[in-house]
């Protein structure tokens, strides 16, 4: 004899199943609803049995769809699958994935159909959020101003956005599956890039590099790269994502700025120790501003070179534009005077005003050299002496 406990066990299992279970008769009335579905909707069994299922639990906008599904169940005698919304007591809508089939009596007369459902509301939200995220990522990927490239672990292109097409000249279809070395790396740079590639695969964070690349049409460009390894759940590297920016124009501008700076520095240095050829055999060096040890050395070298080149008999140090006079400056000027004398030229000093002269006296600086109040007076003396 069958065990009387079996129906009770089966009913208990059905009632506590983690899925929704509902039975609906031919008139659309609820004839059964398990405990799981009752709990989710917020009703008791007495409140739902005998009630119009669609009117009580289905949004009006879904009634026509539900009638069509019921019709298909009755006529097909098969199983249907669909998703539709179910309303809870509080008015919240749940999205339920249903699997339904009709039940017939021994004479083949339709009795009711039942559905087994899974609440996929949370899953739906997750899928929609994931879809939106994917859409945003796709939009970012395709509209980003930086080149975005995905590589497999063998350094073959797995994805290639429009900015990368613009930078390197290869269309996505041309680049897919090809090795990065042959797509964009000049032969002489390949050993360096190979080392960087190994660093990327072993690094836990981004690896940045700047190197020369080559475009499809053979142009040499300079690119800045930010590369990050892609790791699966087990910690295995499955690919590399790269952001690339063509900085060729910026590098050129930086080099031009450095070249201008070097040229300006050379001009400033030249102007800080100018030597003027005033007359045959007569040179002059205007001293403007202050003099430190570095400038004094540069002035001395410049003056001595000019004297040797021109075989000048006289070299005039014009102090008209000098800002101050102290022991240090006087010592530097004394060194210049002695140096010019050693190579056979006489040094004259012009523009030595009363203040500077008084300072020299107060400091007790020996300054045995012919001095003149102005450059014109010193030049006149030098020209007359040169004619003798």
Report what the structure shows.
The protein has 388 residues and is of the alpha+beta class. It has three domains: 120 residues, 2-Layer Sandwich (Beta-Lactamase), CATH 3.30.450.20; 106 residues, Beta-Lactamase, CATH 3.30.450; 115 residues, STAS domain (Transcription Regulator spoIIAA), CATH 3.30.750.24. The protein has 15 helices and 15 strands. The strands form three sheets. It has a five-stranded antiparallel beta sheet with strand order 2-1-5-4-3, with helices on both faces. A five-stranded antiparallel beta sheet has the order 7-6-10-9-8, sandwiched between helices. Strands 11-12-13-14-15 form a five-stranded mixed beta sheet, with helices on both faces. It starts with a helix and ends with a helix.
In short:
The chain is α+β, with helices and mostly antiparallel strands and 388 residues long. It has helices at residues 5-15, 35-41, 45-48, 53-57, 63-76, 121-143, 162-168, 172-175, 180-184, 190-202, 248-272, 293-310, 327-342, 354-363, 375-387, and strands spanning 20-25, 30-33, 80-87, 93-104, 110-119, 147-151, 157-160, 207-214, 220-231, 237-246, 276-279, 282-286, 314-318, 346-350, 370-372. The protein has three domains: 5-124, PAS domain (Beta-Lactamase); 145-250, 2-Layer Sandwich (Beta-Lactamase); 273-387, 2-Layer Sandwich (Transcription Regulator spoIIAA).
């Amino acid at each position: 004899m069958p065990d009387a406990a079996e129906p009770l066990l089966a009913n208990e299992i059905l009632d506590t199943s983690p899925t929704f279970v509902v039975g609906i008769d031919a008139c659309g009335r609820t004839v059964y609803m398990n405990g799981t579905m009752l709990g989710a909707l917020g009703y008791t069994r007495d409140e739902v049995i005998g009630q119009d299922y669609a009117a009580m639990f289905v949004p009006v906008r879904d009634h026509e769809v539900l009638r069509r599904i019921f019709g298909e169940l009755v006529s097909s005698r098969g199983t249907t699958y669909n998703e539709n919304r179910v309303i809870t007591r509080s008015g919240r809508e749940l999205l339920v994935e249903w699997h339904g089939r009709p039940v017939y009596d021994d004479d083949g007369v339709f009795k009711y159909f039942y559905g087994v459902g899974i609440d996929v509301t949370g899953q739906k939200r997750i899928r929609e959020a994931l879809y939106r995220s994917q859409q945003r990522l796709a939009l970012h990927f395709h509209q980003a101003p930086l080149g975005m490239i995905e590589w497999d672990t063998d350094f073959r292109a797995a994805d290639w956005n429009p900015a990368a097409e613009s930078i390197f000249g290869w269309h996505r279809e041309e680049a897919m599956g090809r090795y990065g070395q042959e797509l964009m790396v000049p032969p002489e740079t390949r050993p360096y890039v190979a080392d960087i590639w190994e660093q990327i695969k072993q690094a836990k964070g981004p690896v940045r590099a700047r190197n020369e690349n080559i475009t499809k049409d053979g142009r040499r460009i300079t690119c800045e790269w930010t590369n990050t390894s892609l790791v699966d759940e087990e910690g295995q590297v499955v690919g590399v994502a790269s952001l690339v920016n063509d900085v060729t124009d910026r590098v050129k501008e930086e080099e031009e700025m450095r070249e201008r700076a070097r040229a300006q520095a050379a001009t400033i240095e030249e102007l800080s120790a100018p030597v003027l050829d005033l007359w045959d055999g007569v040179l002059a060096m205007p001293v403007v501003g202050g003099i430190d040890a570095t400038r004094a050395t540069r002035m001395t070298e410049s003056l001595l070179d000019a004297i040797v080149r021109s075989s000048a008999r006289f070299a005039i140090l014009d102090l008209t534009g000098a800002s101050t006079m102290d022991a240090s400056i006087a010592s530097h000027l004394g060194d210049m005077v002695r140096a010019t004398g050693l190579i056979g030229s006489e040094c004259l000093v012009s523009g030595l005003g009363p203040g500077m002269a008084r300072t020299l006296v107060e400091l007790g600086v020996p300054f045995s050299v012919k001095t003149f109040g102005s450059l014109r007076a010193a030049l006149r003396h030098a020209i007359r002496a040169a004619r003798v």
